[in-house]
Every structure is written in structure tokens, then in C-alpha cells.
């Protein structure tokens, strides 16, 4: 029920759409899809400008079609909603689940693409808002979405995160001991776990998992790599960042 004194005309969009209203809704959806798509494309995500733009416009067109299909002739403003027609936007959101699932990739225990899938779903909702005539709600969602994608990205870049890497060391067995290698790594402020060790009498191969905290953009090899490479008896080092 509406609050006492509320006017239906002030809180509802027109039930009869003209080309002007359709153009406004499509225009705002186009703007939202472009702004969010540019951010995704700039960072090399699978769903770039064209994908986000298409899903946003699809949501908008679906809601416009819903408005056009509503039977309004001869009915009061509060009684024209048809349940079957209103299932159309729900079906659009359900279908987005398949596209979002295609953007998610699992590699070992690491999952990629969740933010991309969430962005596609979010942009579709924005399109539904604009298509349904909720321009204010759609603009508010667009602003919040841009804050999340642009603003929080900088916060994430400035925040220290857990990082992992693998270190493979080849050394002469008589010159370098495992305890010395471990001491060098720990003294530099890193955590090390021995994953594998192989000896053939004269040489040894050691594999470590290295953990530390650093900013997202800091992917340079740590200083102890140079220290280990200069140690007598160390023949080869292999350093690989883990995603």
C-alpha cells in the first residue's frame, strides 16, 4: 500500500512509452555499459567494452519490452501488472548466470574471473533499471559500480596482500647446506617451506614455497635471490611467482 497522501504520478514512470522515453533509457544504458566496459577492457578482463555494453543494453531492451507488453488499457494504474510478463527480466538475470559462469576459470586451488562475472550481472541489473524507467536508481547503481571498480582498485593496489612464489635451487652438496639457505630466506623477512629435495651425492636440488606480504604491483624478485646466487656452490636459481 502507498503512504497516505502519496501521488501515483510522482512515484511511477509513465505506463505508455514513446520514442523519447525509449531513447532516454537506451542512452543511459549505453553510458553505463561504456563506462564500466572501459574499466574492464583497460585491465585486460575477458568481458570488455563490447560485452558489458551488450548485456547492459540487453537488460534495458528486455525491461522496455516488458513495459510495452503490459496491458494498461482500461485498467487503473495499480492493477495493470501481469505476472507472466514480469518474468521476462527474471529470465534475463537467470540467463546471465551462464555468461558469468563462462568468465570464471579455476586453476588448481585458485579461481579467476569472479569479479568479471559479478560485473556482467551488475551491468545487466543496471540495464534493467534504466529499461524499467528507474533512471535515478540506475544512475545511483552506476556511480556505486564505478566507485567499486575504480576507487577500490586503487585501495587494493595500495594494500599489502599475501603472495607466494616457488624457488628452485641447484647447488653443490659439499658447499651449501639446507639450513644456510633457509636462514638466508628467513632473515630477509620471508617464510619458506621445503616442498622437495633431491640429492645425487655431488649436487642437490631444493624446491621451496616462499610466502610474504607486499603490494599487488610489487612483483620484483626479493633481495635474497641475489644473495643466494652469489654464494659459493650455488649453480642455478629458478624463481616463479604463483597467482
Describe the structure.
The chain has helices at about 10, 20-40, 50-70, 85-105, 115-130, 135-160, 180-185, 225-230; strands spanning about 105, 110, 160-170, 190-200, 205-215, 235-240. With about 240 residues, it is of the alpha+beta class. The strands form two sheets. It has a four-stranded antiparallel beta sheet. A two-stranded antiparallel ribbon has the order 1-2. A hairpin with a 2-residue loop joins strand 1 (about 105) and strand 2. The protein is elongated, with a radius of gyration of 28 Å. About 25% of the residues are buried.
Question: What is the fold's blueprint, element by element?
Answer:
Blueprint: H1 8-11, H2 19-42, H3 49-69, H4 83-103, E1 105-107, E2 110-112, H5 114-131, H6 135-158, E3 160-172, H7 178-187, E4 191-199, E5 203-215, H8 223-229, E6 234-242
Antiparallel strand pairs: 1-2, 3-5, 3-6, 4-5
Helix pairs in contact: 2-3, 2-5, 2-6, 3-4, 3-5, 4-5, 5-6
Strand content: 15-25%
Number of domains: 2
Low-confidence stretches: 1-12
* Large-scale geometry: elongated
Share in helix: 40-55%
> How much is the radius of gyration in Å?
28 Å
Mean pLDDT: 75
Largest sheet: 4 strands, antiparallel
Order of helices and strands: HHHHEEHHEHEEHE
| Sequence of strands across the biggest β-sheet | 4-5-3-6
List how many beta strands DSSP finds. Answer: 6
By helix and strand content, what is the structural category? alpha+beta
Separation of the first and last Cα atoms: 52 Å
